[in-house]
Amino acid sequence: MPQAPWSDHGNRRWWLGRVFRRIRLDSRPCCREPTASTFWAVMRLVGLLLALGPLVATATATATAHAEPCTGNPNGIGCFDALPDSGPAEPSPLHGLGWSHPLGTGKLALTAGALSGFEPVVVDVPSPDPAGKRVVPLRFSERALLRFGWGLARQIDLTANLGAAVWQRGAGPDALASQTSDPVAPLALVDPRLGLRAALPSSNRHLAWMMRGEVSAPFGSARAYAGNLGPTMTLALSSSYQLGRWFFLGELGALARKPVRIGDLNVGRAALLGVGLGRAFFADQRLTLGAELQLRPTLVSGAAASGAAWTANVPAEWLATATYRLAVAAHPWTISASGGGGLPLSSRTESAPMADAHYLAPTAARIRAWLGIATVFELAPHAR
Predict the structure, then answer these.
(1) Residue 256: exposure state from Cβ atoms within 10 A (0-12, 13-18, ≥19)
(2) pLDDT tens-digit map of 196-235
């Protein structure tokens, strides 16, 4: 009867040596090779996300012609999330853009912070005064935000975003329809979001690609400008490039949501474009400084009525970010601080003398600030 190759003492030592060498190699990030099953799992996920694109476009196109206010009055101001926030749950050198790398199996990322926005919604409307009337439905909003990330597999992450408006001031959505309207609610929930991220193959060790998809539920308060009138869907492709201490981050995607009217303008589906760059400092790169530009051009018809003066609606913001990594009890925590504001890239025709030709579009706050802390926990350090 033939014996197994590990039956004698010498062969047993040889086989055990091979096994332990393989384990050591697999535990080194530079030497791991993605398995075929992981690769095809990522491809199936990417295919599913790409397939959602036409479905999202079809579903939202049917609502484009029926932009709705949230007041019941046809002259009311539409409701939407006036201070949108996107960004990774793990430590990142920029506020809205991150490394296009998955967390890894069994890792939990957490970001907690405060987001402030000054005048994210301002409306210029005609009035008996030739100079027009400026209405500020939301003048100031302070939000507490939480981002979570969980490594489902080596190349796939699950993400979740929660938040609440803890202090707000503004005229509210009824300001155009009534002279005695109630102010905006000071406290409100923000629409929660759930998403998936999948790493894409790259032949350049300095360049990484990732696909992400997100869905939000309309549980936030739309009348407090903390949520949307319906669910939203986001599909985006992100990339990161690192050369020495310099890094370049980018994202291109689309946001699908129910369109609403605000003054003479429709706010609905939008493209997403983000670019950023920065540099790390010190030998351990614990300090980073960077800047980013976020554009969200609206893809629905800009004018809400025939003959309206609006010609382009492009919410645009810039942010400068500084991060510093701390080692507390041998566990790294990253503190981040960001500041910036809106850019007047939106424009209207000369038939609107009561307002500026170039203006800050809704959701582009005049001043935006962020202060947060982030970390990653190794809940399953031996899982691969």
Answers:
(1) buried
(2) 999 999 888 899 999 999 999 999 888 889 988 889 999 9
